[in-house]
Amino acid sequence: MAEMEVKERTGQINPEKDFHLDVPPGRTQYHVKGMDNVDWGMKDRLSRIFSPKSGNTLMLAFDHGYISGASTGLERLDILIPQLAEDIDVFMATRGALRSCVPPMFNKAVALRCTAGSTVLSDDVTSEVIGVDIEDAIRMNASCMAVQTFMGTSDEKSSIENLVKTIDAGNRYGIPTLGVVAVGKQMARNPQFFSLASRVIAELGAQMVKCYYCEDFEKVTAGCPVPIVIAGGKKMPIPDALSMAYHAICEGAHGVDMGRNIFQAENPKAMAKAVAKIVHEGYTDKMAYEFYQDTAK
User: Fold this and answer.
1) Which terminal CB of the chain, N or C, has fewer other CB atoms within 10 Å?
2) What is the pLDDT of residue 1?
3) Is 234 a catalytic residue?
């Protein structure tokens, strides 16, 4: 009860909790957090997502169309995506976009959007179903299946059901599941919420989690036994987007799934390269911004 009172009063993580931030997560021979004991095929797919050298990943999110149609910057996927393919590790996309607009010879990992539901034309976009079955995920050679969850809403139970069914199907065929922490107008966006949601998703069996960067993020990542990839979120000034990516990686994230802050940048290719420098090469946000300016000339 006391913990709930702290949550309701501040929205922060209970300060009495000890996440042992000075102790690194346990790991044996495999480079992906918490995945030492999964099957060979799943490890192979995870290694396509997370670089064996850096342990991190840069995902390019362009799955917005399944809810909002042609977003600004994503009007022509067949033009944009080939330009950015060499600079990122993972396509985060719908099967329709991949099949119709993305040539398969890029040989990139695929985070396949597997849930579907209401569009922006609806008053409520939190009600979703499983929109891609496991057989089609296999045909698409998906490296992981992405499932959106809506914690703290009236659709929480059904979205968790979508998640666990996808996890079960993926486990049968060695395909990881990416549990996505959704946020909406009426949903919390504080450390307590992201800590709870990411932990729940991991404990239900997802091999990785996508959530937003927040205050006390190092506690969110420490409390999650699988890799967290941050969502890029709304468009922001380039220095701010690079700063968010840098601090997230420093505080325990193992990747960035960035959409608008890449494809709506003045120079999307230079932005993708700059974020990759942070994710894989240890650049600071200032170094990455200088790199962006030099590359964008």
Assistant:
1) N
2) 45
3) no
Half-sphere exposure of 65 (CA within 13 A, CB side): 16
CA pair distance 33, 26, nearest whole angstrom: 8
What lies within 8 Å, CB to CB, of 259 at 6+ separation is: 60, 61, 62, 63, 64, 92, 232
- CA-closest candidate to residue 154, choices 187, 190, 111: 187
Domain ranges of the chain: 36-296
Q: Which residue carries 């909406």 as its tokens?
A: 184
- Residue type, position 186, single letter: Q
Got the DSSP string for 122-177? SS----EEE-S-HHHHHHTT-SEEEEEE-TTSTTHHHHHHHHHHHHHHHHHHT--E
CATH number, domain 36-296: 3.20.20.70
Determine the Cα–Cα distance for residues 105 and 295; give it in Å rounded to an integer. 26
Q: For 259-282, what is each residue's pLDDT tens digit?
A: 999 999 999 999 999 999 999 999
What is the pLDDT averaged over residues 70-96?
A: 93
Span 167-177, mean pLDDT?
Answer: 98
Name the active-site residue from 33, 43, 210, 277. 210
